[in-house]
Amino acid sequence: MIMIISGAGLSAESGIRTFRDHDGLWEDYDVMQVCSTQGWEADRELVTQFYNARRQDLKDKNPNPAHYTLAELEKSYQLYNLTQNVDNLLEKAGCKEVIHLHGTLTDLRCEACGHVWNVDYDAQNENDVCPACQSDYIRHNVVMFGEAAPMYQKIYEAIDACNIFIAIGTSGQVIDIVPIASAFKHSILINPKREEYVTSFTEEIPASQTALACLGSFAKYIDEYFSYFIQKNAGEAMDELLGIIKELQ
Ligand SMILES: [Zn+2]
Hints:
Blueprint: E1 2-6, H1 8-12, H2 31-34, H3 37-42, H4 44-58, H5 65-76, E2 79-83, H6 89-92, E3 99-100, E4 103-110, E5 116-118, E6 138-142, H7 153-161, E7 164-168, H8 177-182, E8 186-190, E9 228-230, H9 234-248
Parallel strand pairs: 1-2, 1-7, 2-3, 7-8, 8-9
Antiparallel strand pairs: 4-5, 4-6
The structure holds zinc ion.
């Protein structure tokens, strides 16, 4: 069984922008204002507008070769297909079982009863209510800084169940992938550049700066903890990835 954790780098080639891009959508907003529980409590309307805009932005985005390769992989192997991405591009590529660690952009959630429902790319409007309990206490379905991420328990399940670990397009700043890689005999990292290994995510430093150097000393590059490192963009790395998986099985 294969454990996959993907991050922003998986969807970057599809044009999904993140707070790490300097020309990204997030530049118009303060990240902590729109992605933290404090920001949400302070101005729910602003945060709702932000997620409405991101949902709209997602509408014309398409999966790239990496998404399609993972969908193909799902047909031949049992996967724990975990992603930090909130887009729906893995599903659009044909993946049947995707575990969204940080929630989903195309759903809304009721804060009164917990019901989650699909809205595709529609905006959340002032008058919307929960289809299950009619409460108007509803929100986007994306995990914010400062709140629990219940799907993280799947990470531990996957570590126990799988014998190969693949990290795609994530530098481990939110989910520390090094201890995960260390639990596997076979681990594969796909990332276009070598990145300094940062041991913990620090909220005090605005994520928009992603100032790795500010986070203190580092001993190694993150790829040094993996048994394979494919230094390519996700889409370009797939042939090599499939070759390694065949070799290992
Ligand atoms: Zn409800």
